[in-house]
Structure formats: C-alpha cells, structure tokens
C-alpha cells in the first residue's frame, strides 16, 4: 500500500477515493461501528500527502454485479432481519427477491430494532462524523 500511494503521489495524483462499506463497518451488530481499518487508511493516505474522499452511501452489498471484484454482504444482523421479513427488500414481478439493499418502501417503518432504515443510515453517518471529526 505504501509503494502504491507513493507512486500515486509521484505521478501527481492529489487524492484517492474509497467506499465506506456498511457491511464491514457495522457487521458485529446494530450500532456497533468499527472504523479502525478506515482510520488506518486515512492516516496512511495523509502520511503520503494525499487527500482522501470517503463515499458514505455504500448501503448495498458489493459482489455479483458488473465490475465487482470483491464480496461484501450487508451486515449479518440486517440479513437476519431480512430473512424474517423478506418484504424489506425489492421483489420483482416474478417474485424474485433482491437482497442487495433495503427497499425504499420501508424507509419510514421502524423495522430494525425500533429504528427505520433512514435512522439506521443516519446513525451510521453520525458515527463516521464522530470518529473522523479531527481529520
């Protein structure tokens, strides 16, 4: 990673972009956020004099689509809720479920331990802001 970042800096690149994957950060349970890996990355990028842009809207799974070279599922606790209530995900007219992300149809329903998906997303982003406030 050091060599790659150094090469980018030497090539005149100003910064890098990274997705903050929900399935990695909140995988251990609701409101249990683990930003350590991202903090290490931010520190490493800054050490090389580069900027970093973190994309916060990775509230879907990674894997199984065009261009996906990794597999990052939704948080396990969320998948458990989806298994109990499959209507939390999109369903096509043939009845096939798409477990890549939560349906917009339940945005205002308190289906995750009394929190709506919007509240879950907000808490996640607030956690990021709290953790990286000093950067």
TrEMBL record:
GO terms for molecular function: beta-amylase activity. SUPFAM superfamilies: (Trans)glycosidases. It comes from the Eukaryota. InterPro entries: GH, Glyco_hydro_14, Glyco_hydro_14_CS. The keyword RNA-binding does not apply. Keywords: Carbohydrate metabolism, Glycosidase, Hydrolase, Polysaccharide degradation. GO terms for biological process: polysaccharide catabolic process. It catalyses: Hydrolysis of (1->4)-alpha-D-glucosidic linkages in polysaccharides so as to remove successive maltose units from the non-reducing ends of the chains. It is an enzyme of class 3 (hydrolase). Its EC number is 3.2.1.2. Belongs to the glycosyl hydrolase 14 family. This is Beta-amylase. It comes from Rosa chinensis.
């Amino acid at each position: 990673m050091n060599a790659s970042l150094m090469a980018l800096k030497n090539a005149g690149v100003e910064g890098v972009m990274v997705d903050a994957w929900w399935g990695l950060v909140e995988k251990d349970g609701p409101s249990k956020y683990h930003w350590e890996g991202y903090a290490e990355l931010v520190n490493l990028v800054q050490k090389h004099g580069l900027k970093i842009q973190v994309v916060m809207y990775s509230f879907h799974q990674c894997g199984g689509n065009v261009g996906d070279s990794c597999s990052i599922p939704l948080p396990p606790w969320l998948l458990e809720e989806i298994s109990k209530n499959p209507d939390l995900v999109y369903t096509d007219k043939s009845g096939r479920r798409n477990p890549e992300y939560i349906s917009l149809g339940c945005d205002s329903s308190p289906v995750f331990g009394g929190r709506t998906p919007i509240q879950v997303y907000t808490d996640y982003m607030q956690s990021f802001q709290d953790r990286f406030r000093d950067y």
